[in-house]
Design a protein that fits this description.
Layout (H helix, E strand, L loop, with lengths): L12 H29 L2 H6 L5 H8 L6 E3 L21 E8 L2 E8 L10 H16 L4 E5 L9 H21 L3 E5 L2 E3 L1 H7 L3 E5 L4 E3 L3 H8 L5 H5 L1 H8 L4 E3 L2 H14 L8 H4 L29 H4 L9 E3 L7 E8 L2 E8 L5 H16 L4 E7 L6 H5 L2 H14 L4 E10 H6 L9 E4 L4 E3 L3 H18 L6 H17 L3 H6 L12 H17 L13
Parallel strand pairs: 3-4, 4-5, 5-7, 6-8, 7-9, 12-13, 13-14, 14-15, 14-16
Antiparallel strand pairs: 1-2, 2-3, 10-11, 11-12
Helix pairs in contact: 4-5, 13-15, 17-18
Length: 540
């Protein structure tokens, strides 16, 4: 394929300015991640006294040494609900995709070092998204469980919707996706059903407690008095109730058993060996470090999305598609770590021709079973008389139809702006991409803040004139400014990732590595043959 030639001066002042801005965005979200880790570490002495491992220590013991781990939704719930300072970001859960006994798994760890691992509404949404990723990509699930259950301050926001998580577990078991849970501590009320609905349960002796009603509630409800161990201790569940398959002596032992269970499963035998074999590929001709300076700090300044492709594509090779027909929407084929990919990127608004071109390209990728990568940076669809007369609604609808109905894996990355219906057409969250990530400089909104402010100003001014009033410029200025500030504040990458508009913010320099990992997940899922049953696995 043709090789891309970069036109950027990586030694120029503009590149330096862009890099410094991007680095400041990276530093901001990394500082929040570190704040969460420091909050966890502040509980270390307490965990040592209880002879327990911290949640991330449990995670590190579970993962194969030196293997990749892609954390997802690390900042879910950031400064939402009762997370006042951002240290509770993550929704009470650490989750991601990694290797356990050479098997790629979805891993879920209750972050019991922060607020007892209680689940906020954002934490529930994160749990449901975790399950969706596991189901779409045929991933076994390993859970390291210890949680105070639902955050009761938000019980009404969680209770009804929470049943979906249990339904998903039952359906995943029936689908043929193994679920292994190690219970390290409390699993009370609804929280007891998470391990109960797992296919394999390991309880830590003297630490794990599973009951529908703890001793205080039991006494209040029935008058019966029972100890934690009698009512829901690990020994009882393993020896009498039969809820657990294995007893562990401590956290580390429980994790060892979970790894041995996974190792005993013939999981990788369900896939053709070639699907698991690493691809041979060339590195890009340009350093990924240069991705820091590719996207302008000034969002109004245009750039060519091919500059990104040159730094993520194998050998920097790119086969352009219909560039003479429309240059605003860039379509073409690349490879990333040996995986063929059809890309759709933005060099400006989506025109009628651009939408028609993208719709055709998506169908070609569907025909050849080629995954799609959407690289967002658009103000949306082109507006104006000429655009409307050329059928922008018709062709835009055609593009959205193609995106929504394409069955090949779709991955999205927002590298700049993702505004209005352009977000939909470029496979934003609502169009169900298999994975979606954001660069820390990115914005997502119905429109830009400045545009929204002007729109509301014009609407207010027209309304007042129709009512016979003379508009006050100062009032209009206030409305315009307040609207712009509100939309701008609600469009940042941190605002969006807190609300799970994406699966996480990534450092631009990690883009190729993240995409290669996700594409290999999709490839393995497509090549895997599951062994489903009708109702999932139930205990005697």
């Amino acid at each position: 394929m043709p090789v891309l030639q970069s036109e950027i001066d990586v030694h120029g002042q503009g590149f330096k300015t862009n890099s410094e801005f991007m680095q400041s965005c990276i530093d901001e979200f990394r500082a929040i991640e570190q704040k969460v880790i420091e909050k966890e570490l502040s509980s270390k002495e307490k965990f040592i006294q209880r002879k327990k491992l911290l949640p991330r220590e449990r995670l590190n013991r579970l993962l194969d040494a030196g293997s990749p781990f892609l954390e997802v939704m690390a900042l879910a719930g950031y400064k939402m609900h009762d997370d006042k300072d951002g240290s509770g970001a993550g929704g009470g859960i650490i989750a991601g995709i990694g290797y356990v006994a050479n098997i790629r798994c979805m891993i879920v760890v209750n972050n019991c070092a922060i607020k007892g691992g209680t689940i906020s509404p954002a934490g529930l949404d994160k749990s449901l998204r975790i399950q969706e990723i596991a189901q779409e990509n045929n991933l076994p699930v390993v859970s390291l469980s210890e949680s105070g259950g639902a955050n009761l301050n938000y019980a009404t926001d969680i209770f009804v919707k929470g049943a979906k998580a249990f339904a998903n577990q039952a359906r995943m078991s029936a689908q043929g996706l193994p679920q292994i849970t190690v219970v390290h501590g409390n699993a009370t009320a609804g929280g007891a059903y998470q391990p109960g609905l797992s296919d394999w349960v390991v309880l830590v002796r003297g630490k794990a407690k599973m009951f529908l009603a703890g001793p205080p509630l039991l006494k209040a409800a029935t008058g019966e008095i029972a100890t934690d161990e009698e009512l829901g201790g690990a020994d009882m569940h393993a020896q009498k109730a039969g809820t657990a398959e294995y007893l562990a002596e401590d956290d580390a032992d429980g994790i060892r058993i979970a790894r041995e269970i996974m190792q005993s499963l013939p999981w990788n035998d369900q896939v053709e060996p070639n699907a698991l074999k690493p691809n041979l590929y060339e590195q890009p001709l340009y350093s990924p470090d240069e991705l820091l300076g590719v996207v302008p700090a000034d969002a109004k300044q245009p750039y060519d999305v091919r500059e990104i492709l040159a730094r993520i594509a194998d050998g920097s090779e790119f086969l352009d598609f219909k560039n003479e027909f429309d240059q605003q929407t860039v379509c073409g084929r690349i490879k990333i770590e040996g995986h063929a990919v059809g890309i759709i990127g933005n060099n400006g608004p989506i025109t009628p021709n651009g939408a028609a071109k993208a719709a055709q390209f998506i169908q070609l990728c569907e025909q050849s079973n080629t995954p799609l990568l959407f690289i967002h940076n658009t103000t949306g669809f082109m507006v104006g008389t000429q655009s409307e007369q050329n059928g922008v609604i018709k062709h835009g609808s055609k593009m959205i139809q193609a995106v929504a109905n394409a069955k090949v894996p779709k991955i999205s990355i927002n590298v700049g702006g993702s505004y209005g219906a352009g977000n939909y057409a470029m496979c934003g969250r609502g169009l169900d991409p298999r994975f979606i990530f954001a660069w820390p400089n990115s914005k997502t909104a119905v429109m830009g803040g400045a545009q929204a402010g002007k729109v509301l100003r014009i609407v207010t001014e027209d309304k007042q004139r129709k009512m016979g009033m003379e508009p006050d410029p100062k009032v209009l200025d206030t409305i315009e400014l307040a609207t712009a500030q509100k939309l701008d504040a609600g469009s940042t990458s941190l605002f969006g990732t807190a609300r799970l508009w994406d699966d996480g913010i990534i450092d631009p320099r990690d883009t190729r590595r993240v995409l290669g990992y996700c594409l290999s997940i999709c490839k393995e899922a497509q090549a895997r043959t599951l062994q489903p049953n009708s109702f999932g696995v139930a205990r005697l």
